[in-house]
Design goal:
With 387 residues, this protein is an alpha/beta fold. It has helices at residues 3-9, 11-22, 35-51, 67-75, 86-93, 113-120, 130-142, 173-180, 211-224, 243-248, 315-318; strands at 30-34, 55-59, 80-83, 99-102, 124-127, 147-154, 168-169, 186-192, 197-199, 206-208, 231-233, 253-254, 279-288, 292-296, 308-312, 322-324, 336-340, 350-353, 365-370, 378-383. Strands 1, 13, 14, 15, 16, 17, 18, 19 and 20 form a nine-stranded mixed beta sheet that branches. Strands 2, 3, 4, 5, 6, 7, 8, 11 and 12 form a nine-stranded parallel beta sheet that branches. A two-stranded antiparallel ribbon has the order 9-10.
Length: 387
């Protein structure tokens, strides 16, 4: 999906990944992230957000959710994280990363609220139900605290990804608020929905989903209840390009994830975006038959939109040898990838791909590198995945 744009905008990353693999410095099944470009992207995001008066929470699940990268991001301008689940928050907190939002997709369980309040200490908690609101409130009262919360609000026709259902129904929100506002351990300060942006069919820009209207209507209901709405969180594809779009709708908070590595869907089609593509997947040809070359896998993701791959025995060869992805099924475990066989292919060749990923649900390793566009590229951190 991103091979062409990465070749155009960050060729050195592809060359470096192949060379590190051939030198034995990284194994097959490793994502390689250009730390210099990632820092550039974070700086651009931070500066754009400041210009438009918006706050950002960084999302690390796409890039392996490590405290190492969390610290790098915080040092370059985005100071707090959004955790897709509580385990991500724990992982980031190991290196003292700051948690901005928890509960955004996966709600903490009923026995974990004390840890949320005393160890993770998020700026806000996203709530999907009045039951979770009461659990959190009770835990906060027991600790003598009041926790700021935002409510996820949806209506039936909104866009919601499978496996991410939940939230307060807009048509019943008035009644829910009557109940929630009685809880003494929480303070309702805002609203969220996801996703609020989707790439257009023409692939030339993003368009708002109906979820943004849900947020706007929910804000009216909140304010009619006397709630001072100070936090409107509208994630999906938060980037330098979309921050001004979000601001026009009164959004106060965004959550860049793929923009950190220049891999929102729009980055595959436009080379004028500020973020630079900064991640590739490195594999190796394991064996071949008459039609196909099979690659060591473990890092594929069903929604990756893989199309092409580069291959070769060194960084220079990889830049000029291309094939297509074949026989990829999301229904099976990715023990091997499959490429259309080419005459030049050899067992042991490096394979470089660039596609949409979620590293945290894979078995892949992560390597962070610097100086990829100079003569002395360096591997600076390796995140090895175990079980």
């Amino acid at each position: 999906m991103f091979i062409n744009m990465t070749l155009r905008r960050n060729e050195g990353l592809i060359r470096t990944a192949a060379n590190l693999h051939q030198e034995g410095k990284i194994p097959a099944n490793t994502y390689v992230i250009d730390l210099d470009s990632l820092e550039h992207n974070v700086n651009k995001l931070s500066q754009t957000a400041q210009q438009h008066g918006m706050n950002l929470y960084y999302m690390t699940k796409q890039i392996g959710r490590s405290g190492f990268v969390g610290q790098v991001i915080e040092q370059n301008g985005i100071k707090r994280a959004v955790a897709v689940d509580i385990d991500e928050a724990f992982e980031l907190k190991k290196t003292n990363c700051e948690i901005g939002n928890i509960g955004h997709i996966v709600q903490p369980s009923k026995t974990q609220w004390n840890e949320v309040l005393t160890y993770l200490k998020p700026e806000v908690v996203t709530l999907f139900s009045s039951e979770r609101a009461k659990q959190l409130s009770d835990a906060a009262i027991a600790l003598g605290k009041i926790q700021n919360v935002i409510l996820r609000v949806i209506k039936p026709e909104d866009m919601v990804y499978p496996g991410q259902f939940g939230g307060f129904l807009l048509g019943q929100l008035d009644g829910y608020l009557d109940e929630i506002l009685k809880l003494k351990g929480i303070r309702v300060i805002g609203i969220t929905s996801f996703p609020v942006l989707q790439i257009k069919d023409e692939k030339d820009d993003f368009a708002f989903t109906s979820n943004i209207q849900t947020i706007q209507k929910a804000r009216e209901i909140f304010e009619n209840k006397g709630i001072a709405v100070t936090h409107i969180n509208a994630p999906s594809a938060t980037s330098c390009h979309t921050i001004p779009m979000l601001k026009e709708f009164g959004v106060t908070h965004g959550e860049p994830g793929h923009a950190l590595t220049g891999t929102t869907p729009l980055h595959a089609y436009r080379d004028d975006l500020q973020e630079i593509p900064s991640i590739v997947y490195t594999s190796e040809i394991s064996h071949m038959d008459e039609e196909y070359a099979y690659t060591i896998a473990g890092g594929y993701y069903p929604r990756s939109n893989m199309e092409g791959a580069l291959f070769g025995s060194n960084g220079s060869h990889v830049l000029n040898q291309r094939t297509t992805v074949d026989l990829v099924s999301p229904d099976n475990i990715d023990y091997y990838g499959c490429l259309k066989k080419q005459d030049q292919m050899k067992v042991g060749d490096s394979v470089i791909q660039a596609f949409r990923t979620q590293i945290f649900v894979t078995r892949a390793h992560v390597a962070y590198v610097r100086n990829v566009n100079f003569h002395n590229p360096e591997l600076v951190y390796f995140q090895r995945r175990g079980m």
